[in-house]
Write a structure and sequence with these properties.
The structure is a single chain. By secondary structure, the protein is an all-alpha fold. The chain contains 9 helices and no strands. Helix content is 69%, strand content 0%. α1 crosses α4, α5 crosses α9 and α8 runs antiparallel to α9. 18% of the residues are buried.
């Protein structure tokens, strides 16, 4: 269901995927879906979290070049966050808010704690001092990057690409200010 869930999110978006879509994609009866998950939101959340974990593992595995950390961070953001297989391009903050409204409140609380843990682990992996990087500022920057990445090319591909490069460079510049010598 994970692979098909990823494809459905990419094709339809989180809010428009239905249980019927999922059942059809995995070739099971609609009623059989409920033997695995209580709701489509539960499945979609599980798909997003598994994708996020794979992305996080890729981020942590990257070793920055000690010579030019900012260039390394640009590469990481482009190769991993903007990778075609990343759901970050397809899942908007409003999609997560939608899922949180449909799932038990404990899920959102756990999500916030996990996000803070991922943030700390990522900073440590790249030798970035936490005191030099505000989680909320970085969250806004990453949301902005995601917003640009998820937009249709209504202004042309080159404009979108330039905007993505500016955002990636800005985020890498912000993060690299806190890298320990």
């Amino acid at each position: 269901m994970y692979i098909n869930g990823v494809e459905l999110i990419k094709q339809k978006g989180v809010k428009r995927v239905t249980v019927e879509d999922i059942a059809r994609a995995v070739n099971i009866a609609k009623g059989s879906f409920y033997a695995y998950y209580n709701s489509k939101e539960e499945l979609l959340y599980a798909v997003i979290k598994k994708s996020e974990k794979k992305l996080f593992d890729r981020v942590i595995a990257v070793q920055l070049d000690k010579g030019n950390a900012k260039e390394g961070l640009v590469r990481v953001l482009k190769e991993i966050y903007l990778a075609p297989d990343s759901l970050a391009l397809y899942v908007k903050p409003s999609d997560m808010e939608y899922l949180f409204r449909k799932l038990p409140s404990s899920v959102e609380e756990w999500e916030q704690a996990k996000a803070n843990d991922y943030f700390s682990q990522t900073l440590a992996a790249f030798r970035i001092r936490e005191s030099h990087c505000d989680f909320k500022v970085l969250a806004y920057l990453m949301d902005s990057l995601q917003f640009i990445a998820s937009q249709d090319n209504y202004n042309g591909g080159e404009s979108k690409e330039q905007a993505l490069n500016i955002m990636v460079d800005s985020i890498a510049g912000y993060l690299s200010q806190g890298i320990e010598g």
